[in-house]
From TrEMBL:
The gene is glpK. Signal peptide: none annotated. Sn-glycerol 3-phosphate binds at T15, E86, Y136, D246. Residues 263-450 form the Carbohydrate kinase FGGY C-terminal domain. Keywords: ATP-binding, Glycerol metabolism, Kinase, Nucleotide-binding, Transferase. It comes from Candidatus Allocopromorpha excrementipullorum. It comes from the Bacteria. This is Glycerol kinase.
Length: 500
C-alpha cells in the first residue's frame, strides 16, 4: 500500500484578505487559496474588521487551497499562522462573541492619547518595549475598547473577557476555545511586552489600565500549541505548530537568518526588517526594535521600518477615484509616460509611520499641472512606494552599522517590473525577488514544520530559498538625488496637516 502524501499549510491572515499556501514536503507550492474581507471605516482615521467574517474567510481560504490541490484535510501535517500584528480584539469566552470589531493596525483613534503617553511615559515604553508610544500598537486599542464599549469592564471583573491579536483569536477558534496564546514576535507589537524579559510588563499594563488576566500566554514562535478541533475545523485534527507576526514570517521565509540580512514586504503597507541577531538594536532615527522570533526560549531581534500605505494607495486608485480597473495595469501605465511629470504623491492616508511618526500627516499630491494625466498619477503612486522604502533603508543603514548590499523583496507588488526596477534604481543596490513570493505564508509553514520536528535547525531551511529575478540599479546618481530631493519636499507638505 502506497504511503499517503502529506502537506504543510501556511496561513497568512492579512489586512485585506487571507492567503493559504499548500506546500508539499519538498516545499513546492501545490495550491493557493485567497479570500478578501471587508474593511470598515466608521469615522475618519478609524479602521475595523469583523472578526467573525475573518474566521469564515480563513476557513474558505483553506478549503479553496485544499480543493485546488486535490488534498484532503487529513493529509495536512501541520499548520503555521502569521497575522497582521497590531490588529486586536476582545471577546466573551463564554459566548465566543466579539465585544467589538477588531481594531486594525492602521487605526488612529488613540493618536491624542498616544501623544500624552509619549510626554509622560515615552522613555519607559521605548526602553522596555522597543516601540514608541503610538496608536499603531495594540495596547492603546485594547484600552479604547475597555473604556468605550458598554459592559466590558464588568465582564473583565467576572473573568469572561479574553483579549488577543488575530493569531490568538484564530488559534482559540481552531481549538474550540481550548488554547489562548500568542507568540513572542506578535506580543512585541502590542506595546505591552518587555522585550528583555519576554513577558508582559506590569508597569506598562498599569499605565494603560489593562489587566494581565485577559491577555494570552506568550509562547515560542515554533512549538505545538494544540490541534484543530474537528467540530470547528474541516473535520480534521491537525497540529498548529507555528505562529508569528506577518513581517517576521516574511523575514523567516526569505531565509534572513543571519545578522544584517534584510527583506522588504510589499503589501497593503511596506515593511522592511533587518535581522540583528541576539542584540536588540535601538534606533536613533525613528525605526522600531522588535522581536523577530523566539525559538527554544531564545529571542532573535530585528530593526523594523514600517510604512502604512503603499499597496493600499493602488487599491485607492481602483476603488476610491476609479482611475484603474486592477493593479496589474499600473505597470504598463507607468511605463507609458517617460517620467512622473513632476507629480509626487505622499499617500499618508492615516499618517506617516517610520521614520517620520506623524499621526497628523495626510495624503498629498503635488506638482499637478494642466498636462498631468492619470498615467502620471499612477506612476507617482508606484514611485511613492519606492521612495518610502528608500527612506527606511537609509535610516536602517545609519542605525545598524551593518552595510546593506542587497535587499530581498516579496509580496504582491513584486510582480510589478516597473516598481522593482525603480526600487533598485533608488536604493543603488540589487533587489532580489524569490520564486515563492508569498513568503509570509511560507515562513509560517516553515516554522510549523520546525515546531513538529521536521528540521533540527533553521540553517537546514536556507537551501530552500530560490531566486526568481534580480533587479540591478541603472539610474544615475544625479537623477536619483533630484527625485529624492523633490520627494522630501512633498513629504514636508503632507506633514502635520490634520488637526484631529
Amino acid at each position: 500500500m502506497s504511503k499517503k502524501k502529506m502537506y504543510y499549510i501556511g496561513l497568512d491572515q492579512g489586512t485585506t484578505g487571507t492567503t493559504t499556501l499548500l506546500l508539499d514536503e519538498q516545499w513546492n507550492v501545490i495550491a493557493r487559496g485567497y479570500k478578501e474581507h471587508k474593511q470598515y471605516y466608521p469615522k475618519p482615521g478609524w479602521v475595523e474588521h469583523d472578526p467573525l467574517e475573518l474566521w469564515q474567510r480563513v476557513l474558505e481560504s483553506i478549503s479553496m487551497a485544499l480543493e485546488k490541490g486535490g488534498v484532503s484535510a487529513d493529509q495536512i501535517k501541520c499548520i503555521g499562522i502569521d497575522n497582521q500584528g497590531e490588529t486586536v480584539m476582545l471577546w466573551d469566552k463564554v459566548t465566543g462573541e466579539p465585544v467589538y470589531n477588531a481594531i486594525v493596525w492602521q487605526d488612529r483613534r488613540m493618536a491624542r492619547y498616544a501623544d500624552e503617553l509619549t510626554k509622560e511615559h515615552g522613555e519607559i515604553i521605548r526602553e522596555k518595549t522597543g516601540l514608541m508610544a503610538d496608536s499603531y500598537f495594540s495596547g492603546p486599542k485594547i484600552k479604547w475598547i475597555i473604556d468605550n464599549v458598554d459592559g466590558v469592564k464588568e465582564k473583565i471583573q467576572e473573568g469572561r473577557i479574553l483579549a488577543g491579536t488575530l493569531d490568538t483569536w484564530l488559534i482559540w477558534k481552531m481549538t474550540h476555545g481550548r488554547v489562548h496564546v500568542t507568540d513572542c514576535s506578535t506580543a512585541s507589537r502590542t506595546m505591552m511586552l518587555n522585550i528583555h524579559t519576554g513577558k508582559w510588563d506590569e508597569e506598562i499594563l498599569d499605565i494603560l489600565g489593562i489587566s494581565k488576566s485577559i491577555l494570552p500566554e506568550i509562547c515560542d514562535s515554533s512549538m505545538m500549541y494544540g490541534k484543530t478541533d474537528p467540530l470547528d475545523f474541516l473535520g480534521a485534527s491537525i497540529p498548529i505548530s507555528g505562529s508569528v507576526v506577518d513581517q517576521q514570517a516574511a523575514l523567516f521565509g526569505q531565509a534572513c537568518f543571519r545578522s544584517g540580512t534584510i527583506k522588504c514586504t510589499y503589501g497593503t503597507g511596506c515593511f522592511m526588517l533587518m535581522n540583528t541577531g541576539d542584540k536588540a538594536v535601538y534606533s536613533k532615527n525613528g525605526l522600531l526594535t522588535t522581536v523577530a522570533w523566539k525559538l527554544n526560549n531564545k529571542m532573535t531581534f530585528a530593526l523594523d521600518g514600517g510604512i502604512y500605505i503603499t499597496g493600499a494607495a493602488t487599491q485607492w486608485l481602483r476603488d476610491g477615484i476609479k482611475i484603474i480597473k486592477n493593479a496589474a495595469e499600473t505597470e504598463e501605465m507607468a511605463y507609458s509616460v517617460k517620467n512622473n511629470g513632476g507629480v509626487y504623491f505622499v499617500p499618508a492616508f492615516s499618517g506617516l509611520a517610520a521614520p517620520h511618526w506623524d499621526s497628523y500627516a495626510r495624503g498629498t499630491i503635488v506638482g499637478i499641472t494642466g498636462g498631468t494625466t492619470r498615467e502620471h498619477i499612477v506612476r507617482a503612486t508606484l514611485e511613492a512606494t519606492a521612495y518610502q522604502v528608500k527612506d527606511n533603508l537609509d535610516v536602517m543603514n545609519m542605525d545598524s552599522d551593518m552595510p546593506i548590499t542587497i535587499m530581498r523583496a516579496d509580496g504582491g507588488a513584486t510582480a510589478n517590473n516597473f516598481l522593482m526596477q525603480f526600487q533598485a534604481d533608488l536604493l543603488g543596490i540589487p533587489v532580489d525577488v524569490p520564486v515563492i513570493q508569498d513568503t509570509t505564508a511560507l515562513g509560517a509553514a516553515q516554522l510549523a514544520a520546525l515546531g513538529i520536528g521536521e528540521f533540527d535547525s533553521i540553517e537546514q531551511l536556507e537551501g530552500n530559498w530560490k531566486l526568481a529575478k534580480r533587479y540591478e540599479p541603472k539610474m544615475s546618481v544625479d537623477e536619483r538625488e533630484s527625485l529624492l530631493y523633490n520627494w522630501h519636499r512633498a513629504v514636508e507638505r503632507a506633514k502635520n496637516w490634520s488637526e484631529e
